[in-house]
Amino acid sequence: MSGEKYLQSLRKLERKVYIRGEQAADPMGHPLVQPSARAVAQTYELEQQPEYKALIFARSHLSGRPVNRFTHIHRSTDDLVNKVKLQRLLGQRTGTCFQRCVGLDALNALEITTFEMEKDLGTPYYRRFNRFLKQVQDENAVCNGAMTDPKGDRGKRPHEQADPDLYLRVVDENREGITVRGAKCHQTGALNSHYIIAMPTLAMREEDRDYAVSFALEADAPGIIYILGRQPSDSRKMEPGQADLGNLFYAGQECLIVFDDVFVPWERVFMFKEHSYSGRLVERFAGYHRQSYGGCKAGTGDVLIGAAAALARYQGVSKASHIRDKLVEMVHLNETIFCCGIACSAGGRPAASGAYLIDLLLANVCKLNVTRFPYEIARLAEDIAGGLMATLPSLADLEHPEIGPLLYKYLQGAAGADTACRLKMLRLVENLTLGPAAAAYLTESMHGAGSPQAQRVVIARQADLEQKKALAGKLAGIEEGS
Ligand code: SF4
Ligand code: FE
Question: Rounded to whole angstroms, what are the CA distances from 267 to 120, 127, 198, 277, 316?
């Protein structure tokens, strides 16, 4: 499918969407939405480019046909590695979040978990899931992976909340299906998706069994309400001329999705109150998405490092040893993130269903690094860029007959450096470190796929300190158990 065809397919959806206090009649035509849809469209555009064939296409284990990798169930460590490489490439091309990975990660986590549920419990979840998956692959659809509940009082379990809807839950069931109520926060690319895949947000217990629910829905199913999230400086996208965008083409997108008593037919229900399976579904989805960041954030980091290096040249400091050091440090941090993404992929293993799961310990190490390193890369980029990045007049002023020549005179850099290029590059660094893309490159690095503490919990569980103690004890001549 071409990017243009994909964008057309979204325009057909009839959804209830709110943007800045108003219901949007044409959300896909809205200037706050279009750059994010263009970023997802890049995942289709790659299909048209023969040099990326091996990365963007994978062979479906269901049909044997080539499918877009964003709809593929990983069948080997090569698949896992290619996923991370593809994400880096797309991060490089868009300089922001291209949104399609959450759905991919949800599909893979569900494939493994529904297989186990069907095997253990005899429920038809795996068969249902595979019918849905086939449809997604045939349609080359975008799925939104919806996990994060609002959570209300974080010190309380779902059923203890003052308002029981603060976690998405089942409120009714009949012969045809179930009715769900609740909300999902920070939903990446929600308006750019054809389907919503909902999953529980944490390991549920018996008392919380109504909250142990997973399903897929058409994005325009009745009762779903989308409320677009804001990003820093996003209203620049609505300014005429868009001179101060920084990234002229792409942006990420997050929404609050409200499920206002939404009906889900049984055919699309993949978990229904089996609370003991919710924890492993969460852990797998989070693990896959923590792997994902090893690709996408490294790709965005490449753009930021490139912008900093270009600014160093425009400003005449590219030979200064401390600037070179800073650029090397940025590369080192960025490649460390990527190494972790590749390592957890190379260390992947097949689950019982045959799908490949990443090495969970290494995926969590990957994401914990991502909660820190992009901030340091951004700090170094700001250091190199200089204060002008945050005090720059509008680039529209360059066109003004009186002040334009003054800006060219007083904001020029090194001899031979184009002043307009310097200022555009400063805008791009601003976009990535303080502007709309900072939501994707920084805050999402902190909280996306789980906040740092969530990774520490998994690392602590996977660390096997007993085995390490035994290793040390053996070399020190200490008997086991002493
Ligand atoms: Fe993909 Fe990265 Fe965006 Fe997650 S944050 S959807 S991994 S681009
Ligand atoms: Fe994310």
Answer: 19, 9, 14, 19, 63
The verdict on residue 39 lying in a domain is no
Residue 448: CB within 6 Å of ligand 1? yes
Number of domains in the chain: 1
Q: Tell me, in angstroms, the distance from the centre of ligand 1 to residue 391's CA.
A: 30
- Residue 480 is predicted with a pLDDT of 81
Q: In this structure, which ligand is nearest to the CA of 42?
A: 1
Give residue-wise pLDDT tens across range 228-287.
999 999 999 999 988 999 999 999 999 999 999 999 999 999 999 999 999 999 999 999
- For residue 90, the ligand 1 atom closest to its alpha carbon is 8
Residue 296 CB–ligand 1 contact under 6 Å? yes
| Three-state SS sequence of 73-123 | CCCCHHHHHHHHHHHHHHHHHHCCCCCCHHHHHHHHHHHHHHHHHHHHHCC
Distance 233 CA to ligand 2 centre (A): 20
Ligand 2 centre distance from Cα of residue 118 (Å): 29
Task: Enter the DSSP assignment of 442.
Answer: I
Query: Which residues are designated catalytic?
Result: 97, 101, 188, 254, 289, 293, 296, 444
The pLDDT confidence band at residue 366, using thresholds 50, 70 and 90, is very high
Geometric angle at alpha carbon 158, from 157 and 160, rounded to 5°: 65
CA of 74 to the centre of ligand 2 (A): 19
Asked if residue 455 has its Cβ within 6 Å of ligand 1, the reply is no
pTM, whole model, 2 decimals? 0.97
pLDDT at 236: 96
**358, two tokens:** 């990443």
Bridge partners of 172, per DSSP, are 179
Domain that holds residue 367: 281-465
Q: What 3-state class would DSSP assign to 181?
A: strand
289-333 confidence digits (pLDDT tens) = 999 999 999 999 999 999 999 999 999 999 999 999 999 999 999
Place 430 in a pLDDT band, splitting at 50, 70 and 90: very high
CATH code at position 319? 1.20.140.10
Indicate if ligand 1 lies below 6 Å from the C-beta of 444. Answer: yes
Q: Which is the closest atom of ligand 1 to the Cα of 448?
A: 5
Determine the pLDDT at residue 440: 93
